[in-house]
Structure formats: C-alpha cells, structure tokens
Amino acid sequence: MTHGHARKFQKELNGGLVALVLLAVLERSTEDLYGYEIAKRLARQSDRAPLFKEGTIYPVLRTLSASGLATSRIVPSYSGPPRRYYRITDEGRAVLAEWRSIWRETRDFVEQFAEPGAST
C-alpha cells in the first residue's frame, strides 16, 4: 500500500512542476523544440529516470501554447508525421521567473519540515 501512496504523491506533486520544467527547457534552448526532443533533453540531463512520463509533456505543451506562454508551429517531417515545435514567449519568460521564485520559496519552506533533523 505504501508504494501506491508514493505514486499518488508523486503524480500530484508533478502536476504543477511539469509546466515549470518545460518552460525552463524552452528558455534554455536557442532553437524551437518538439516534444520528443524535450523528452530526450530531460533524460540526458538527469542521472535518474524523469519524474514524469513522456506522454505528459504533450498536453502541457499545448496548454502552455494556448495560454500564450509558448508559441508553436507545425513542420512537415520526412520520417513520420508532422512535428509541432515550441518556443517560449516573452510572457512565458516573465511567468517562468515568477514560478521560479514561487518554487524556491515553496522548496525552502517544505525543507524546513520535511528533512530529517529539521527543527519545528
């Protein structure tokens, strides 16, 4: 039963972090990126398995685009279906800066209580 609780906790925690991570990846890129390329970058930059599944990336990218935080364009592919490429917008950069600040504050607050030996 403990494993089920851990999976549920991880899923709920990831729900808010996926958009933050995706915007950060787009911000760091000098080129437009498509979903699979983003997934490969996430896998390369971590020595452990990504915290969320590749399939999670695509709906979040669509949401970021629909809300004006990223732009997207479709490019035909010779080796398969067309690819949708994403780029962060100026508004996305501003929101990412706010989210980073919120993340740091949240992380610091949680660590005060969640880490072993933390004083309460």
Walkthrough of the structure:
16% of the residues are buried. The chain has a 3-stranded antiparallel β-sheet with strand order 1-3-2. It has one domain: Winged helix-like DNA-binding domain superfamily/Winged helix DNA-binding domain (Arc Repressor Mutant, subunit A, Orthogonal Bundle), CATH 1.10.10.10. By secondary structure, the protein is mainly alpha-helical. It has helices spanning 2-28, 35-44, 54-66, 90-114, and strands at 33-34, 70-75, 83-88.
Keywords, separated by commas or semicolons:
mainly alpha
Q: What's the SSE blueprint?
A:
Elements: H1 2-28, E1 33-34, H2 35-44, H3 54-66, E2 70-75, E3 83-88, H4 90-114
Antiparallel strand pairs: 1-3, 2-3
Helix pairs in contact: 1-3, 1-4, 2-3
Which consecutive residue ranges, at least 5 long each, have pLDDT under 50?
A: none
- Within the largest sheet, what's the order of strands? 1-3-2
Most strands sheet: 3 strands, antiparallel
- Helix tally equals 4
For the record, the CATH class is: Mainly Alpha
> What proportion strand?
5-15%
The percentage helix is 55-70%
Radius of gyration: 17 Å
Cα separation of the termini: 28 Å
Query: How many DSSP-defined strands?
Result: 3
Computed structural class: mainly alpha
Task: Categorize the overall geometry.
Answer: globular
CATH superfamily: Winged helix-like DNA-binding domain superfamily/Winged helix DNA-binding domain
Order of helices and strands: HEHHEEH
How many separate domains make up the residues?
A: 1
* CATH architecture label: Orthogonal Bundle
CATH topology, which one? Answer: Arc Repressor Mutant, subunit A
Q: Would you tell me the overall average pLDDT? A: 89
